Amino acid sequence: MVPLVSTAQIKLIGKVVDKKLNEPLVFVSVGIEGSKKGTITNIDGIFELEVPSKDVLINFRYVGYQPLSLSYAQVAVLQQVQLEQETKVLNEVTVLAGENPAHPIIRKLVENKPRLNPSAMDSYSFESYNKFLLGTDISPEIDREDSVQVNMKKYLSENFLFSMESVTKRHYKSFNKVKEEVLANRVSGFKSPQFTTMASSFQNIGFYDDFITVMSINFLNPISKNSFDNYYFDLVDSVNDEVGRKSYVIAFEPKKKNFNGLKGIMNVDASDFALSSIDAETTGFTDLHNQLSEGQSQFDPNHSTYYDLETYLTVNFKLQQHYTKIRDEVWFPDQLKFDVFFGEFVKKDSPSFPLMGIGKSYLKNIAINPDVSQVKFDRTVLTYHDLANDRDSIFWNQYREPKLTPKEIETYEVIDSVFEANKVEKIMTLTAGLIEKKIAIGLFDINLHRAFDINKYEGFRLGMGLSTSEKISKTFELGGYWSYGIKDKEDKFGGYFDLHLLNKKRLDFFINYSEDVEQFGKIQFYKYKPLPLETETYYPFLIDNMFNVVQKEAGFRFYWLRYLDTEISLRQRDISVNNDYSFIVNEADLTSTNEFDFTEVSLKLGYNYGVNYVEAFNKLLRTTRSNLYLGLNYTQGLSDFGGQFEYRKIEGMVQKKFLTRGFGQPTFTLQAGYIDEVLPITNSFNIHGTSNEYLDVANSFRTMGINEFVTSKYVNLFYQHYVSQFVIHPKYSKPQLVLQGALAYGEGQNSERHIGSAFSELDDYYFEAGILVRRLVRALGYSFGVGLYQRMGNYAFEKQSDNMFFKINITFDSGE
Prior knowledge:
single chain; 9% helix; elongated; 8 helices; 816 residues; mainly beta; 18-stranded antiparallel beta sheet; 51 strands
C-alpha cells in the first residue's frame, strides 16, 4: 500500500485480491468507518481513497465474500488486501412479502435507458488503450505432477502465451455509425502485425441495449422492459464514492434456463439512476452447479468456473464495465474488462491447462456530442494509422494504464524471439491468405476456392485458379481458372479483369469470360451470403441438372450507401442444353431448339444492414452478421446484339431475423419473381426443393423435389423459429427446438412451348410444415439433429405416408 500525504487528506492506494486465487477483485466497496465517503476498486482491483487521518478503520465489502475491516496502519503495510469467499451458495434467492426493493430501482433505470445508452447519443468520441492477454487458468486441484507439468507451470507462471496492445481513437455518430483508427499496435511475436485487438469492441460500449451481443451470441439484458419476468433482482448493499455519492448494489440472475441470460452485480447511482458499474457473466451451466452434492463443489464467481471432485467446467465469458460522469451530465464507461474461457471438461489428474483470454480497455479524452462532421463514416469501421506499427516507448507510455508488468514484458521478449526463430510471422501471413482462400507465390495468388467442389451433376469438380497479387498492382487484378468434372467429363474455364477505380474498391470495372455449367432456373441474390456450414450452403451440392453456358460480361461494381452493394452489367449468354429438353422459339412454325442466345442488361442490389468491415492483413474483412437483408435483381433481355429474347425479369428478397424477449428467435424469408414473357426453363425460376436427399437445407422446400417445379411468377415464404433449448448433457447434447414452415405460390408458363421438360409448372399454392430438433448430438466440432416435415395443400400426395419426409440436420458447432 502507498499512503500519499497532502495538507488536508492522506491518499491511500491499494489492491484487493481473492485470498485463495490471488487475483484482483473488481468493484469492491472500500469505505471509511463512520463516513459516507468511499470508493470501489477498478478493473485491476486497485483503489485510491482519501482519508482524513491515520486513525481510521477501512471497510472492504464485496458480494460473495466475507466483509473485512482493517486499520489504516494494517492496510498501509500490506502488499494487498485479501478477501475470503463466503461458503454459502451465492445464487440462492429469498422471496419476501411486498414489492422487491430492487424493482423500483431497476424500473427507473429502464426508464432512463434512452438518455443513458451511448448508442442513443448524437455522437461521442474517445481514445482507448486496449490490451489482450492469452494465458491459462490452471486447476488448483492438480496435485500429481511430472516434470513436463512442473516445467509448463513454471513457464506459464512467468509468461503469457500471447499478448496484444493497441491505442485507438473511436468516433461514433447516431444510427450506429462507427469509425475507429488504430494509432498504435503491438502484437507479441510480430514485427509488422496486420491485425490488432480492440478490447473495447469485445463488448458493447454501454450496457443498455435490450440484447448484449458477445462473440455473435445474444444475451437478454437484465436492464430491459419486462425484465422482472425473466430475472431475479436482490438489493444487497449500498456504497458511497469519494464525494459521498450513493450507489445501490443489486444482484441479478435469470429465473429460467431456457434463454441466454446473464448473472452478476450492478451498481446503480442513487441520484441519477444510472449504472456506475456492471459485473456480468454467462449462466449456461448454473444447473450443473445446483445438481452437485453439498461438499463436493465450489463456485468461483471471479473466474466463472465450477470445480468438483472429478472435473471442472468453464463458462463462456465474463464482462465488467466501470462508468464515470462526464461534465456532470452523462454517465459513460471509462474502463472495460472482458474475460473469455476456452476450456470445457478437464479431468483433475490430467496435465491440461485451459486457455483464458483477458481483454481490458481504458478510455480517456471522452467527448460527448462532439463535432464529427469531418469524420468519414463508411462500412470500414477500423483503419490503421501509417505509423501504427512503429510507435516508440514515449508514445506508448502516454496511454499505458497501468504500466506493463514484468510478466507482460517477459512475454514480449520470449514470444518475439521464439516467433522470429521459427518464422511464425511468415506462417501467419500464409494463414491470412488461407482465410481468403488464397496462397501467395511470388507475384501471383493461387485461388483455392477453384481447387475442389462437388455437386450431383459434375461429381467431384477439380481445378485451379490463378490471379495477379498486389505485388504486381493494387489497382488491377487479372485472373483465370480451369476445372474438370469427374462425372460429366467436361472442361470448364474462364478469365477476368478487375480495375479498382476508387480506393478500398468502392468502384470496380470488370470484364469476364467463361465457359461453364449452370443450374436450370437458378435463383440467386447479390451479396446474400449465409455463413459457412449453415445448412443453406448445402443446396449447391444437391444440384443434378445443369446446362452449358458461354458468358461474356462487362460492368461496374460499387457501393454508394453504407450497406448497399450494386452491380450493373451488360452480358451475352450462349446456352446449350445437353438433355432431352427443347423450347419452341417460333410458335408460327413450331421451330424448337435446345440452344439459346441471350443479351441482357442487369442490375443487382444487395443490402446487408449492420454489416461492418475492418482492415486486416491488407484486406477488408467482414466482421458482423446482418439481421436484415434486402435483394433486388432486374434483367432486361434484348433482342438486338445477338439476343433472341426481349423480356423483363425482376426478383426480390427480404430476410429478417428477430430477437425477442423470452419468445425465441424467428426468421422470415420472402422471395418473389416475375417474368413478363415465356422463356426457356434455363432462364425461368426453379423453386428450390430438396426432398430427394435426407440432408436438411434451410430456405428450401424439404418436401419438394429438387427439379419438381418451374414457374415464371412466384412468391416463396420461409419461416423458422428457434423456440427453446434445453440441456441433456452440457458438452454432448443441448437440443434446440425449431419450428419450420414454407409457402409457395406460382403462375405457370405456357407449357406447350416446353418439350421434354422434366419439370412441372407451379400454378397454385404449395405448403409444408415441420419440426426440427437441432444439436441433439454434439461431436467433433459439429452438431447433429433430426427433422420431420409434412407436405400439404393442393400438391399433397394421396397416400399420407408419402407426404412425410425425415431429415438429418448437420451444422458447425460454435460451442455456445
